Amino acid sequence: MEKIDRLLVIGDIHGKWERFKSVYDKVSFNAETDLIVFLGDYLDRGDAPVPVMEWVMEHYGQKNMVFLRGNHEQMFYDAFLESPSSEGHRVFSLDSSLSLWLGNGGQITYEGIRKTGKKEELIADWLSLVAKLPLCTEIVVNNQTYWFMHANCNPGLPLSEQDDVDLLWRRTLAERPNLHNGEQIIVLGHTPVQALGYEAKPQWLQNGRLVLMDTGSYLDSLSHLGPGKISCADLLSGEIYQSAV
Q1: How do the domains of the chain map onto residue ranges?
Q2: What architecture (CATH level 2) is domain 6-242?
Q3: What was the pLDDT predicted at 95?
Q4: Is 79 helix (H, G, I), strand (E, B) or coil?
Q5: Which residues pair with 66 in a beta bridge?
Q6: In terms of pTM, does the model score above 0.90?
Q7: Which residues form a coiled coil (predicted)?
Q8: DSSP for 6-55, written as a single string
Q9: 100: Cβ contacts below 8 Å, ≥ 6 apart
Q10: Which helix (H) or strand (E) holds 99?
Q11: According to a count of CB atoms within 10 Å of the terminal CB, is the N or C end of the chain lower?
């Protein structure tokens, strides 16, 4: 690809609008000289998911900005595309996709959407966007291959053969970094580094070949893992940008 000065990546946001804005402003992204990848999980859990959703929709498709899908976008998507009943109403059960989403931070997002007064429009627009979001991407800079995905992958398989559940949900590499012995640099979100015993900043493991970017965006000082932060890293220089707590 064209020469870039910074290859930036932002970990999970989870509806923490103020934290997201604080780190994004620090980064001072320049579309002419930088490329930035977002690893998904823009909504749920945090207290202000709607501004984050609106920001992502506004910036999707802009130059040198890549937005990936996370498992929380997938849960949202599945929840609102469930088959309706014969009466035209959504089927709801304890094991439904809607129940799964609401029980994993989606309730906060749903209430935020409802309070806007434009629920149907916002849901439809977000569904349309999520359908376009890729599960992974490969970027080559300075002859180095980088793989980006939300959760996990099999380093021995081409991206085209990866399992969707792996890409969105599993934590195998985060928990067992030694499984990655390839040449590509793999960049993941999804698993808060604090839950793995690290401090709240991006982690370069396996001699820099595995980068973990989820620093517990929605955690607070009352959590045994917190306080959390939203993090951005320049993969070329190793510089880290973080939100204010």
Answers
A1: 6-242
A2: 4-Layer Sandwich (3.60)
A3: 56
A4: helix
A5: 37
A6: yes
A7: none
A8: EEEEE---TT-HHHHHHHHHHHT--TTTEEEEE-S--SSSSS-HHHHHHH
A9: 75, 78, 79
A10: helix 97-101
A11: N
